[in-house]
Amino acid sequence: MEPLRAALVDYLARTRGVLGSVDRAVICCGASHALALVVDALVAGGRRRIAMEDPCLPRHREILAGRGVEIVPVPVDAEGLRVDALVAADPDALLVTPTHQYPMGVALSPPRRAALAAWARERDRVVVEDDYDAEFRHEHQPFGALQPLAPDHVVYLGTLSKTLAPGLRLAWLVLPERLVGPVIAAKRAGGAENSVLDQLAFAELIRSMRYDRHLRRQRAAFRRRRDRFVAAIEAASPASAVTRISTGLHFVVGVPDEAAVLAAAGALGLKLHGLGPCWHGAPRSQGSSSGSAGPPRPPSTAPSARWWPHWYRYKPANWTGTAPGSAANLVATGKVCPITFDRGRTCRLGVCE
Ligand SMILES: Cc1ncc(COP(=O)(O)O)c(C=O)c1O
């Protein structure tokens, strides 16, 4: 809907430096839907070799694989995507998480951002920038988006799944001009549409600045939660390094035996994600990732099983998962839905009023 697209274009320019216009914005049913539409449009335009980070989000790999594209894995190191390896492989397009690499958590370094944008411009390639949790930069000012470095070659993708609720299924694309028609055609062909009510409500949330207020509050809450989580892990298991936690809502914890840790956590009712499925080939490091999203203001002072009884007390009516204790508030329990969390006050679109 135009009111939401207009509000988003202003918001993204203000907060992420994204260069766009209402005509180049498309609203989608989550990042996964947005990615599927972009891949359909790329394939329709003859771009079939698409690079992904290695490791990556398994769901996104499934989406690409399901569309019959040739997936080109590109390694990630401490500075993010290895742009030299990308340039050597020279695929038609790339899906990348530059602000907060999923799952490893590194940010793409400024020289690599410049090199990536130059590759896209000079070779006329398409880069899909998945900016899924940039709102939660904890340690210093967020990098701006990659998109303004090459707006005619970078597809910008954002989502509400981290900031409000994954259940809303609301995400957005800001597209290079030439991809607008093909993406809209793919969306029409697929038949999925967003709720008009949700779009109008979100547009109002942005326009009224209450979305900014909500993010400020959540940023502080998640930072506190992260600090408690790291302190608890370090106290309990000094050998398990918690890495790359400057942004976002999930943590990577290095462990000697991933399968054993996942099994032990499962026995406690905690659902952790191993890194194993994130690799394109054989796993190269062991770790588990856990998240800190979930109900705002858990009534606990430490990320421990002490949360659980409280969680059950306050759990959203539509909650179907397991207890989201410390480590349990997982990437998987990204399904936790702050929108219905309510302690007697009115909650609208996840913002307590
Ligand atoms: C890397 C990455 N991108 C995007 C998303 C959001 O996906 P969606 O909007 O489909 O819920 C997630 C959620 O976990 C993610 O991990």
Automatic annotation (TrEMBL):
SUPFAM superfamilies: PLP-dependent transferases (SSF53383). Signal peptide: none annotated. Residues 283-294 have a biased composition (Low complexity). InterPro entries: Aminotransferase_I/II_large, HTH_trans_reg/aminotransferase, PyrdxlP-dep_Trfase, PyrdxlP-dep_Trfase_major, Reg_chr_condens. GO terms for molecular function: transaminase activity. Gene3D superfamilies: Type I PLP-dependent aspartate aminotransferase-like (Major domain) (3.40.640.10). Keywords: Aminotransferase, Transferase. CDD domains: AAT_like. Pfam families: Aminotran_1_2. Residues 283-303 are annotated as: Disordered. The keyword Transferase applies. PROSITE patterns: RCC1_2. Residues 4-258 form the Aminotransferase class I/classII large domain. This is PLP-dependent aminotransferase family protein.
